[in-house]
């Protein structure tokens, strides 16, 4: 084993990122935009370095060649023999999701990560100040020692102390319930039109939410559905590399697929979060696409509203996060929310994550069956 010694520098006490970490953050952003194309992300990174002289600030001559070698050695990229190209690894996927989660939590001004409580008191995980009589199976860690002792002293003395089962008091605890969530992501062409990148913030929120649930709410479920001309399921590992397309917006099929997905989930709380920037513009009818990109086509809208009503009948709440503020879209969102008795937010790209995280955490306390 060999060790390399260098002159001590107090720059590491100032929480400064290493050259590798600095370039890794930038590379991950570019990789997500490039849809997982490692070569394209590295080309963009090289162009940025040429223009802004990023590596010139690093000591010891650390350059892009060193960075690429480190990516390989640290397991962020690997060579795919079938495609004959470098591809991102599962470690990269996890790293991008974790980074997205950290970014959104840093943006939140209020709210915190934690368990989801219900309004019902009983056996659970978080202690309340109120107490009740002990029941078989209660956690002994929640025994109220003072209350128990006072109960026992009502019928005994310290000299001849006797403790009965009905003397034991335990603290009430908040009851936790699990939730099944389907996240719908609009990949229609409008997500990159009009000079604004809406798909990247949407992907970041989806990645952060998946990371939050997998790490903090292991008993919850999260399914992700993308929709454009049609709707299809997305694996969490593919989230960083989603691309926009096809062109139209099949909101009805997305809601239908989400509803069928939630039917398979045996949870008390079921909900749909939909991130979109436009109106529904197509449906599938008799195996063929019926589309209309101009205005709100009542034939299309009514099919979407019918699906929203079906979700309501199945106790599935729909929360719509509209990331566009066109006035004519408000009418559609209002109709959708009314049909489902759900909620809607007109969120900017900057606060989208805050809205979704706060809503997700709050929603789980509303129903226990």
Model description:
It is a single chain. With 369 residues, the protein is of the alpha/beta class. It contains 10 helices and 13 strands. The strands form 4 sheets. The chain has a 6-stranded mixed beta sheet with strand order 8-7-6-9-12-13, sandwiched between helices. A hairpin with a 3-residue loop joins strand 7 and strand 8. Helix 1 crosses helix 4, helix 4 crosses helix 6 and helix 8 runs parallel beside helix 9. The longest helix has 18 residues. The radius of gyration is 26 Å and the shape is flat.
Short description:
The chain is of the alpha/beta class and 369 residues long. The protein contains ten helices and 13 strands. Helix 9 links the parallel strand 12 and strand 13.
Describe how the helices and strands are arranged.
Layout (H helix, E strand, L loop, with lengths): L18 H15 L4 H15 L11 H10 L3 E4 L4 E4 L1 H18 L9 E6 L3 E8 L11 H9 L15 E8 L2 E8 L12 H18 L4 E7 L3 E4 L16 H13 L5 E8 L5 E4 L2 E4 L6 H16 L2 E7 L4 H14 L2 E4 L5 H12 L6
Parallel strand pairs: 6-7, 6-9, 9-12, 12-13
Antiparallel strand pairs: 1-2, 3-5, 4-5, 7-8, 10-11
Helix pairs in contact: 1-2, 1-3, 1-4, 4-6, 6-10, 7-8, 8-9
């Amino acid at each position: 084993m060999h060790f390399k010694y260098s002159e001590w520098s107090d720059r590491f006490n100032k929480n400064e990122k290493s050259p590798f970490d600095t370039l890794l953050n930038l590379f991950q952003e570019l990789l997500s935009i490039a849809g997982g194309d490692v070569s394209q992300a590295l080309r963009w990174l090289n162009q940025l370095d040429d223009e802004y002289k990023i590596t010139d600030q690093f000591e010891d001559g650390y350059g892009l060649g060193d960075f690429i070698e480190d990516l390989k050695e640290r397991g962020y990229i690997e060579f795919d023999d079938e495609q004959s190209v470098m591809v991102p690894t599962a470690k990269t996927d996890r790293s991008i999701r974790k980074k997205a989660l950290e970014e959104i939590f840093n943006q939140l001004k209020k709210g915190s990560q934690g368990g989801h409580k219900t309004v019902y008191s009983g056996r659970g995980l978080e202690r309340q100040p109120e107490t009740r009589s002990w029941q078989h199976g209660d956690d002994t860690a929640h025994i109220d020692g003072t209350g128990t002792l006072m109960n026992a002293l009502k019928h005994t003395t310290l000299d001849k102390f006797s403790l009965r089962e009905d003397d034991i008091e335990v603290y009430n605890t908040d009851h936790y319930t699990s939730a099944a969530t389907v996240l719908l992501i609009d990949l229609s062409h409008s997500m990159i039109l009009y000079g604004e990148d809406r798909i990247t913030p949407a992907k970041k929120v989806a990645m952060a939410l998946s990371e939050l649930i997998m790490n903090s709410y292991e008993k919850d479920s999260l399914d992700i559905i993308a929709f454009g001309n049609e709707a299809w399921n997305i694996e969490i590992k593919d989230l960083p590399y989603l691309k926009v397309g096809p062109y139209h917006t099949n909101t009805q099929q997305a809601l239908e697929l989400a509803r069928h997905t939630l039917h398979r989930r045996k949870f008390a709380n079921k909900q749909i979060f939909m991130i979109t920037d436009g109106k529904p513009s197509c449906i599938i009818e008799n195996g063929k696409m019926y589309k209309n990109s101009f205005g709100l086509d009542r034939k299309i809208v009514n099919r979407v509203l019918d699906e929203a009503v079906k979700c309501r009948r199945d106790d599935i709440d729909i929360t719509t996060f509209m990331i566009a503020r066109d006035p004519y879209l408000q009418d559609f969102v209002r109709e959708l929310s009314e049909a489902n008795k759900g909620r809607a937010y007109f969120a900017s790209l900057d606060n989208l994550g805050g809205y979704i995280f706060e809503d997700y955490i709050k929603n789980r306390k509303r129903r226990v069956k």
